[in-house]
Amino acid sequence: MEDALSAQRHLARINCPVMVAHGTFETPEFQRQTRDFASAMKAAGKPVQLLVAPGYNHFEIAETLANPYGALGRAALEQMKLGGA
Questions:
Q1: What contacts 58, CB < 8 A, 6 or more positions away?
Q2: Model's pTM, two decimal places?
Q3: How confident is the model at residue 52 (pLDDT cuts 50, 70, 90)?
Q4: Average of per-residue pLDDT across 15-25
Q5: CA neighbor of 54 nearest in space, from 83, 9, 29, 24
Q6: How far apart are CA 10 and CA 25, in angstroms?
Q7: Strand-pair partners of 18
Q8: CA-to-CA distance for 26 and 4, rounded, in angstroms?
């Protein structure tokens, strides 16, 4: 089951740009896993962007996706070439 659900174990199947993010108030383990996944994507030649959001924890950073001025919302708009806010 773990293998089937692991994106990092199936990098060849990823065919779109990926953004991975963590906040600076997340646990060191969440931060490490995020960096490791971004590094694995880059090593596989996949388009990846690592976003580090200062002052956010694991739950707060997700909320920024709904805000065009938030860390994830702005980055998503930029990735879609919609200019961001």
A1: 22, 23, 26, 27, 30
A2: 0.85
A3: very high
A4: 95
A5: 24
A6: 28
A7: 48
A8: 26
